[in-house]
Amino acid sequence: MSETPMSHGAVEIDGISFDFVQNRLLGGKVYRHPDGSSFVRLGSKVDTLEEEIHTRTLHNRGYPVPEVIAHGERDGEYYFIETSLGSDHFGAIFMNERTETGIASQENFGLFETICAKYFEAQSNPKNYLRKGEDIDGVARIPELIISYDDLDERKLNAVLDKLRSRLGKLPSTYLQTDLNAFNIMPQGIIDFEYMHAGPVGYDVATNIHFGRFFPKNEAFDMTCAYEFSDEQINHYSELMDDIASQNRAPKPSDYLDDFLVLKSMWGASKGVRSRENPNRMRLFWLWRREVMERCMDMYLADVPIDTSSFQEVDQVILAHQ
Fold this sequence. Notes:
alpha+beta, Phosphorylase Kinase, domain 1, Aminoglycoside 3'-phosphotransferase, Chain: A, domain 2, two-stranded antiparallel ribbon
């Protein structure tokens, strides 16, 4: 295949000019075919090739993910082209609905639920379990977490990790998207496997429905909640995932929700390493994420159920100390 660089906003591959869509969190770029039928993911060879392999693996195992239809190299970078799963992700759909009504509509929430159910049907199928054991430290990004905050209570962190390993070590290991949320869930499937990792079955589907609550609501913060689900929607989704787990004779995600939530809070706070690299960027947001993590860890060790609706209380706690 021939590749020719074009303007900053496009890249030409085999005579087709793919339009620039966005830069990616871990580096690289995404481009869209003029008719929207496919996307190019372009970046470093190591990272992009790894993501291509992940995407192919999941597609072959029955997950609702794009089909990889081409790949190649240009100027020391690597790309692959995947089929489109829709024009807008549910993140954009729910953001618009939040602006209009304050919450996701039942119609679009139902479509969102359907895709998540298909994903979990594949993930909880024993044929897709992995022989590799749990890697809790990897899922929680512990090295990055330690780098992000040099004043972490080491004894508390180790106590949380010990409890997580004890409880989640009993679960089958499987493929995790790890950053599963409405922004990478499309009307026809799930995209973006740059964070893919092996881990406990049910982790990403259980935390997915709580994603919006891992962001502050007060506009004084650098980044805020983009969309919300009602308690009724969260409960319906959780029951559906439990039903799928029962059908596949897999562990029910709800039985390990607190384990998954504290793990997610650590994963979310670990990205605070970016604030160490650039102290003036999103400082309040990373303080908020740190406080949420500390609260989750304290509740987890005290065997107190983690209520994600209480995270909004952290807004005033952080702002009061500024």
